[in-house]
Amino acid sequence: MRLPILFILVTVAIDSMGIGLIMPVMPDLIQEVQGGTLGSAALWGGLLASGFAVMQFLCGPLIGSLSDSVGRRPVLLVSLAAMAVDYVVMAVAGSIWLLLAGRIFGGITSSTYATAGAYMADISKPEEKAANFGLIGAAFGVGFILGPIIGGLLGAYGTRAPFIAAAILAGLNTVFGALVMRETVTDRIRRPFSWSRANPLGAFRHLAALPEIRTLMLVYFLFSIAFHVYPSVWAFYTEERYGWGPGTVGLSLTLYGLLAAIVQGVLIRPILGYFGEWKAVVFGLMFDISSFVAIALVTNGTVALILTPLSALGGAAMPAMQGIMSRATPDDAQGELQGIMASAAALAMIASPLIMTTSFAAFTGPGAPVHFPGMPFVLSAIIVVAALLTFLRARPLAT
After folding, report:
1. How far apart are CA 314 and CA 318, in angstroms?
2. Does domain 199-399 have CATH number 1.20.1250.20?
3. What pLDDT tens digit does each residue of the chain (399 aa) get?
4. One fold for both 1-182 and 199-399?
5. Which of 37, 210, 328, 338 could be bridged to 118 by S-S, CB 3.0 to 4.6 A?
6. Per DSSP, which regions of the chain are E strands?
7. DSSP H helical ranges for the chain
8. CA atoms of 118 and 337, how far apart (whole Å)
9. Coil, helix or strand at residue 367
10. What's the CA gap between 234 and 241, in Å, rounded?
11. Cβ(48)–Cβ(103) under 8 Å?
12. Residue 397: its pLDDT value, please?
């Protein structure tokens, strides 16, 4: 594998791993610096997560536009260095406000995934883009698997240890990138920076002039809302429905991450070869609908684990969709496209927990019309049906 591609995949894996590294210790860390109960720590944890997502939404197109103008290399290296600094700040933070400032700063500079996607688009032939985006998805899955495991182990050495490890990983990867990464934004595709396109509304207004992008971005947003049912309610749902504890929940997430990495890193190429990009999206969305409905109805935890491969196959939709959008976007706007996608994903991260946790509470609480903890997954299935119908309407644009 060429070293620049390896660097991109390691970058995405570390980005994903960093989230999981710090998750196991966040409740204890917040109580350590703020005091209070676990419930109040959960509220502060939600505020930290929301602050990160809001800044990611606002700044995604800004970072993407910068990478189209000044180049992928400086933006990505500065972002990685800033990520390392952010983890150091959180490792030494003695107040909740410094933790919040660190998360806001991290949200502003969290361009690694978007800029990595733009870099991958630059170095890929048109027919290779979907499969290479699958490699990025697989790297994200690997980080998703390793992060919580390593974070849980390091947590035994104190609440600050995972942050120090994340800072070291980000710092070493910055050095690696400085040594092997070459610039891909040439004068042919370099685009002058424009503030009117460096914000979510302005950037989307520009790319919305491309009919395929306008429709597919809506599909991507709906899919992202539905997918975030897992981080929003999975731990609560499985405890209520199956009586699972933290160990089993962690095992289920690890299994899903492993299978998703296999689908996007290995199986995506034969899937694309057999179906093509457009049908691969339909294939993935239909598996997502089926898995959401199955999870909502299954009352046996063992059967739920067996259904995990069904859920993972839905991962074929995302790289195929990214490939279609990347090919429909001019070469000088690849960073802008990835920035908008990061903003759409961040907006989904803000909206989905509210929707999913509210529906879970409404159908499990004392005043529930019927006890049905699977309601968030029914909602997710309905949202993906809407995404599929929207996507099918867009299909003639490609013919």
Report:
1. 8
2. yes
3. 588 888 999 988 888 776 667 766 777 788 888 887 755 776 687 778 778 878 878 887 888 788 888 889 999 899 899 989 988 988 898 888 998 888 888 888 776 777 888 888 888 888 888 888 888 888 887 887 787 778 777 877 888 888 898 899 989 999 999 999 889 888 888 888 777 776 777 766 766 666 678 888 899 999 999 998 887 788 788 888 998 886 787 778 778 888 888 888 888 889 989 988 899 999 999 999 999 999 999 999 999 888 877 788 888 898 998 888 888 888 877 887 888 888 888 888 888 888 888 888 889 888 888 999 999 999 999 999 999 999 998 764 443
4. yes
5. 338
6. none
7. 3-22, 26-34, 38-69, 72-92, 96-109, 112-123, 129-154, 161-180, 200-207, 211-227, 229-242, 246-262, 268-275, 277-297, 301-306, 308-313, 317-327, 334-362, 375-394
8. 8
9. coil
10. 10
11. yes
12. 44
Contact predicate 344/220, CB 8 Å: yes
Instruction: Please state, in angstroms and rounded to a whole number, the distance separating the CA atoms of residues 113 and 119.
Output: 10
The full set of domain ranges for the chain reads 1-182, 199-399
Residue bearing tokens 């009919």: 211
Closest residue by Cα to residue 16 from 99, 85, 110: 110
- Tell me the C-alpha distance between 54 and 60, whole Å: 10
| pTM for this prediction | 0.76
| CA torsion angle 308 283 315 364 (round to 10) | -50
Whether the Cβ atoms of residue 375 and residue 363 lie closer than 8 Å to each other: yes
Instruction: List for the chain the helix, strand, coil content (%; round to 5).
Output: 85, 0, 15
Other Cβ atoms less than 10 A from the Cβ of 352: the count is 24
Among all chains, which residue has been given the structure tokens 């070293």?
Answer: 3
Measured N-to-C along each axis, helices 229-242 and 334-362 cross at an angle, to the nearest 10 degrees, of: 30
Q: What CA–CA distance (Å, rounded) separates 289 from 310?
A: 10
Determine whether 98 is exposed, middle or buried from the number of CB atoms within 10 Å of its CB (0-12, 13-18, 19+): middle
pLDDT at 207: 65
Q: What is the DSSP-derived secondary structure letter of residue 336? A: H
The predicted pLDDT at position 139 comes to: 87
Give the 3-state DSSP-derived string for 232-287, with helices as H, strands as E and coil as C.
HHHHHHHHHHHCCCHHHHHHHHHHHHHHHHHHHHHHHHHHHHHHCHHHHHHHHHHH
> Domain 1-182: what homologous superfamily?
MFS general substrate transporter like domains (1.20.1250.20)
Q: How many CA atoms lie within 13 A of 302 on its CB side?
A: 0
